[in-house]
Amino acid sequence: MGNVYLTRAWRPQEPHPGDTFTGVLERFGSQLLKASVTLKSEIDANQRPFRASTWFTYKMIPSVEKLEPEVRQLVMIQPTTLACRSIWAAEGTIEINEDFNDELHFLRPKDIVFAEYFPYLELSVGYGRVLATL
After folding, report:
1. DSSP character for 36?
2. Do 9 and 33 form a contact (C-beta atoms < 8 A)?
3. Which of 7, 9, 10, 120 sits CB 3.0–4.6 Å from 85 for a disulfide?
């Protein structure tokens, strides 16, 4: 439940080194997440990852009886890549803000290890695995 938009248009099918774009997530009038990517170079086909990156998410189910959530879980998901064209190495930044009724700030990274851009990616996302109940 929120608005997702890009800060400017770009050429998703014709990327070039130095292209920068930013995605923003807003919910209830507050900016919760802002992620920027600057493309460096296309990754050689022989050096591409064999699978999609592991995803981590925070699952929260609010309580109807109290202020604390009924369920809070850290979940890991490993999607399966069905189709992929080029992959670009990139530099990335991410800002995750806190706001009322928001759960994303629990996933703030300490460091960005790497960033990639996929102009076309088709995934199959199955079930996840609960890593921790908080």
Report:
1. E
2. no
3. 120
Q: Which amino acid is at 10?
A: W
* Residues shown for the chain: 134
**Cα separation values, 75 from 16, 58, 88, Å:** 34, 6, 27
Taking the C-alpha atoms of residue 84 and residue 51, their distance in angstroms, rounded to an integer, is 10
**How many domains are contained in the chain?**
1
Pick 48 or 95 by higher pLDDT: 95
Beta carbons of 108 and 33 less than 8 angstroms apart: no
Give the domain range for residue 66. 3-133
CA dist., res. 16 & res. 19, Å (int): 6
CB count in 10 Å sphere of residue 20: 13
Is the CB of residue 91 less than 8 Å from the CB of residue 18?
no
Backbone dihedral angles phi then psi of residue 48, each to the nearest 5 degrees: -75, 150
Closest CA to 86 of 116, 133, 119, 128: 119
Q: What is the DSSP letter of 28?
A: T
The model scores a pTM over 0.85:
no
